[in-house]
Amino acid sequence: MPRIILAYIRAIDSMNRFIGRIAMYLIFVLAGILLWSSISKTFFTPVHWTLETAQFVMVAYYVLGGPYSVQLGANVRMDLFYGNWSLRTKAWVDAFTVMFLIFYLGVLFTGAISSTAYSLGYFGTEPFGFFRDLLVAFVTGGPGAAAEMLGFLERSPTAWRPYLWPIKVTLCIGVFLMLLQALAEFFRDIGRIRGVAL
């Protein structure tokens, strides 16, 4: 296999391992939020922020830890036939089926970018162009110039009414990391087919 592909696999694996091992501690943050929610409902006045914050933390835990889970092979598989196959047969099947995952993640990433642009007040049809222009405005004019490009920021319709763009940005990052990991898994499967241990 070319060195650049091997370097890509190593770089993506180490990056997603680092992010995933940090993200796995979000479960303790989630438990703390839910514990405080129970305590406040029992002994004090219930607070509005706990349920939605718990949902946001769970999304971050799931999407940022997902690539690490795929890397470890801890994702759910239908193992009825797969478990009895040889490593080479598994690699052929995985190399084929990961293409469906990459397509799905590409569609999901495009939708996440569009939704994030909407949450920042962009209502047009070119969300990637909006982010390009936002980046150019930030680099050339600073934060003030970028802030002028933002429209009405989307908020949750609940009583707490948090801004939604932070969790949507987290979703975009998580889906992008999963896309990179899926591509690394494809290259890894090609290597296994060719007899290269990765």
TrEMBL record:
Part of the tripartite ATP-independent periplasmic (TRAP) transport system. The chain crosses the membrane at residues 18-39, 51-70, 91-114, 134-153, 165-184. GO terms for molecular function: transmembrane transporter activity. This is TRAP transporter small permease protein. PANTHER family: 2,3-DIKETO-L-GULONATE TRAP TRANSPORTER SMALL PERMEASE PROTEIN YIAM (PTHR35011), SLL1102 PROTEIN (PTHR35011:SF4). Keywords: Cell inner membrane, Cell membrane, Membrane, Transmembrane, Transmembrane helix, Transport. It is found in: Cell inner membrane. Its main location: membrane. It is a multi-pass membrane protein. One of its GO terms (cellular component) is plasma membrane. It comes from the Bacteria. Residues 31-190 form the Tripartite ATP-independent periplasmic transporters DctQ component domain. The complex comprises the extracytoplasmic solute receptor protein and the two transmembrane proteins. Belongs to the TRAP transporter small permease family. Pfam families: DctQ.
